[in-house]
């Protein structure tokens, strides 16, 4: 029988809120870009804590997917594709891969005509993720 694990709604809620904070980037491009570029450059406690939480949630999701390989919900595929991407993203940032660093700096180019499209897509993803997390949270007691 398929069961929603207690942590699963919180993965989607966390990622939803994390992506929805990017509304700030549509309101104030410069402050938003300066904040996140500063966080990535300085790599302090906040940076490593956030990276650890993001990586930990992705790893938990991927492990859950493989533990339930023949009995998965459709949304667990998100762990494989999005979690796998995010783990690569974190690896590329932490190791300082040149092409990834250049891509990130282009994403944070406040003069780019693509700014609203990029950050708008993250906001849409955040809204969908948050809605899925809330839906799973409501279904959690019924799945146990």
Architecture overview:
The chain is mainly α and 144 residues long. It has seven helices and no strands. The longest helix is centred in the C-terminal third of the chain and has 29 residues, at 115-143. The protein is globular, with a radius of gyration of 16 Å. The chain starts with 7 loop residues before the first helix and ends with a helix.
Strand-helix topology:
Layout: H1 8-20, H2 23-27, H3 29-42, H4 45-67, H5 77-95, H6 98-107, H7 115-143
Query: How many helices in DSSP terms?
Result: 7
Termini separation? 10 Å
Mean of all residue-level pLDDT scores:
94
Uncertain regions spanning at least 5 consecutive residues? none
Number of strands: 0
Cα gyration radius (Å): 16 Å
Shape: globular
Percent in strands: under 5%
Largest sheet descriptor: none
Helix content: over 70%
Order of helices and strands: HHHHHHH
Helix and strand content put the structural class at mainly alpha
Overview in brief:
The protein has about 140 residues and is mainly α.
Features:
single chain; mainly alpha
């Amino acid at each position: 029988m398929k069961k929603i694990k207690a942590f699963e709604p919180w993965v989607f809620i966390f990622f939803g809120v994390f992506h929805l904070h990017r509304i700030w980037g549509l309101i104030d491009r410069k402050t938003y870009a300066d904040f996140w570029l500063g966080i990535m450059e300085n790599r302090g406690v906040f940076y490593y804590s956030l990276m650890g939480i993001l990586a930990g949630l992705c790893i938990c999701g991927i492990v859950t997917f493989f533990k339930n390989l023949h009995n998965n919900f459709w949304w667990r595929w998100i762990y494989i594709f999005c979690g796998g991407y995010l783990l690569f993203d974190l690896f590329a940032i932490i190791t300082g891969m040149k092409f990834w660093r250049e891509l990130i700096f282009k994403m944070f180019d406040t003069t780019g005509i693509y700014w609203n499209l990029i950050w708008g897509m993250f906001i849409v993803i955040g809204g969908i993720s948050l809605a899925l997390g809330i839906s799973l949270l409501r279904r959690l007691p019924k799945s146990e």
